[in-house]
Amino acid sequence: xxxxxxxxxxxxxxxxxxxxxxxxxxxxxxxxxxxxxxxxxxxxxxxxxxxxxxxxxxxxxxxxxxxxxxxxxxxxxxxxxxxxxxxxxxxxxxxxxxxxxxxxxxxxxxxxxxxxxxxxxxxxxxxxxxxxxxxxxxxxxxxxxxxxxxxxxxxxxxxxxxxxxxxxxxxxxxxxxxxxxxxxxxxxxxxxxxxxxxxxx
Length: 201
Description:
Layout: E1 9-12, H1 16-27, E2 32-35, E3 50-51, H2 62-86, E4 97-101, H3 104-119, E5 125-127, H4 129-135, E6 145-149, E7 153-154, H5 157-170, E8 174-176, E9 180-186, E10 189-195
Parallel strand pairs: 1-2, 2-8
Antiparallel strand pairs: 3-7, 4-6, 5-6, 9-10
Helix pairs in contact: 1-5, 2-5
């Protein structure tokens, strides 16, 4: 572990969001450190990597939808920049999403979701069970229908996390591979942390 280091930015948690935050901060010339016993581990190792702003729309999230769509539009450039910076293949694919209904309840839910998508100005296509199986022959014969969303995309979160660790290291981010025990608070604001072994950052 590094000795105590004064950072402009201290990120607690080396998941995808923490690593992207650290990488961007370091790119802007800020002295940046990440505290995590296993950067790039955790949820990134088991997530599906769906970038599905349209398919994962839920009622009451129409305001969030605008942010999700804007993020989805920017994602290809982000993936290309990270690949160029690290040489890592991120497993990024513009493959769309096929959400299928296995029974009548699934079908009713997907029909409601399709209506919400259309009201929100989103592009999705309702398919019969036969049309779903034509796109994906391994689907069960009982599939009752589904939604095809060509604008969704996907990334391999394990490759993404590994690339972000590399990008951070190359940008000069300092990794403290330990647990953060507690925050250091000054004037009601977080000012750092203390590691599990008592080291202050």
